[in-house]
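Entry for the shared binder. Reason: the reviewer on the internal report wants the predicted structure included alongside the sequence.
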Amino acid sequence: MLCLFCVLPVTVIAVEYLSKDQFLVSVFKESSPEAKVVWLRGELRQSVEQILGHRYAGLRIRYWRSQSADDRTAWVLDEIGKELPITAGFVVANNTIESVQILAFRESRGGAVRYPSFTRQFQELSLTGDHYLDGHIDGISGATLSVRAITRLSRLALFLHQQVTAQ
């Protein structure tokens, strides 16, 4: 009987903490701007793959950009933690991270990345010339892969913000 429990698959329940629409309302208080798209082609695709450490599955990435003087962008991005995607929202302004929120977590372990005590570490960080964060991110015991996934996504959000605001 005990062996039967050892071979049963672990059921993972996706927990959505915040919908994309709720995230966007929290970012852009007034009305959310229309979604825009970054097409991943050529050197841009190569840079994205270098930041993530693997090929990005999509051909484009959606983002939202404020029309006001602060020129903030919001990004809703997915990255695999250990086996399943983590969905996170990033707000970038003046080439620094303004906030990070975990929108959905689907893994059986590592959910501590959703707490503000972790996500606050990313505030005011920016990218170095070689696409790494300019500050240290403390890990969480038992959540190493989730921490790495959120760190990669933060680098990606900063990089993409630089690309769309430079145009």
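Summary line for the report: The chain is about 30% helix and 25% strand.
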